[in-house]
């Protein structure tokens, strides 16, 4: 039996970087979390401990900070990730591939009686913008998205007509709360895009379609969101969603002599339905390694 080294990569995980743009009295902040991983000629570091082609993970960390200064900030996280990947692959002959993953945390200016404050901010909840850039030689892939976008509609949602077995207890309904935490990832065709503009548009479309679609199932809402994104953005090949169904159950108040006309609910945190699907173009180019090392998605 022979033994050999399989696929591998290494790097520095979760490099926290906050960049403050101070060109004017109105400051801009960029709060990101960068994970850098490299692939290359790493056989001997694994098999015999030869580190001559192993760029230290600490060097990768320092590169993130230095480039934020040299490049005048972070900008769109997709552009920053692409530039990092190109730096590592192009500047080091023993590195042939790079994976750069970035999460961005949004901050809003604190509102005051005089308007938005110049240099004071509040964190915008749990929602996080994401991107993963994979580079292998000259080939580059960008997958972007968001997670933790919590949404709820108090009506305009039904669920009925499903198969019933002796284990079915769920009552059919033509009026229910629909709530979920949207995680979305989309794959770009090419890398020359206005990523900030595209991100804002995709997010807005997902919110609009969640609100405006009269839902007969969370799957139907998911598909409507994905369809709207692809129709508006020819530069996006596919979009993948993972959306829990955050159940809200009507509380039976009859024991207290009270009715409950869809007003009082119990919000259950578990167990929950988990809906996942990909909406894609039938003529989209093959994904290659775009989804490489992006766990949790079908």
Entry keywords:
alpha+beta; 5 helices; 22% helix; globular
For the secondary structure, the number of strands is 10
Report how far the terminal alpha carbons are from each other: 33 Å
Which class do the helix and strand fractions yield?
alpha+beta
Averaged pLDDT, please? Answer: 95
Adjacency order of strands in the biggest sheet:
1-2-3-4-5-6-7-10
Task: Please tell me what the overall shape is.
Answer: globular
- Helicity, as a percent range: 10-25%
Biggest beta sheet attributes: 8 strands, antiparallel
What portion of the residues fall into strands of 2 or more residues? Answer: 35-45%
Q: What is the H/E order?
A: EEHHHEEEEHHEEEE
**Unreliable spans:** none
From the alpha-carbon coordinates, what is the Rg to the nearest angstrom? 23 Å
Number of helices: 5
């Amino acid at each position: 039996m022979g033994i050999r080294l399989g696929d591998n990569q290494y790097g520095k995980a979760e490099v926290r970087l906050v960049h403050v743009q101070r060109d004017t009295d109105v400051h801009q902040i960029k709060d990101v979390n960068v994970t850098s991983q490299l692939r290359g000629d790493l056989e001997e570091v694994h098999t015999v401990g030869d580190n001559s082609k192993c760029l230290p993970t600490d060097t990768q960390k320092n590169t993130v900070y230095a480039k934020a200064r040299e490049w005048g900030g972070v900008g769109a996280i997709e552009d920053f990730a692409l530039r990092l990947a190109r730096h590592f692959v192009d500047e080091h002959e023993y590195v042939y591939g790079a994976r750069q993953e970035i999460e961005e945390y949004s901050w809003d200016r604190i509102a005051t009686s005089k308007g938005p404050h110049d240099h004071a901010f509040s964190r915008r909840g749990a929602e996080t913008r994401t991107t993963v850039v994979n580079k292998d030689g000259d080939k580059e892939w960008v997958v972007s998205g968001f997670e933790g976008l919590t949404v709820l509609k108090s009506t305009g949602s039904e669920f009925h007509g499903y198969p019933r077995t002796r284990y079915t207890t769920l009552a059919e309904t033509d009026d229910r709360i629909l709530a979920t935490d949207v995680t979305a990832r989309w794959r770009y065709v090419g890398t020359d895009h206005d990523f900030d503009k595209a991100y804002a548009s995709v997010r807005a479309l997902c919110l609009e379609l969640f609100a405006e679609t009269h839902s007969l199932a969370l799957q139907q809402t998911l598909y409507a969101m994905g369809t709207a994104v692809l129709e508006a953005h020819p530069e996006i090949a596919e979009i993948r969603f993972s959306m829990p169904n955050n159940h809200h159950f009507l509380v039976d108040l009859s024991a207290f002599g009270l009715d409950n006309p869809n007003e009082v609910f119990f919000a259950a945190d578990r167990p929950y339905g988990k809906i996942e699907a990909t909406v894609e173009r039938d003529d989209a180019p093959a994904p290659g390694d775009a989804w490489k090392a992006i766990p949790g998605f079908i």
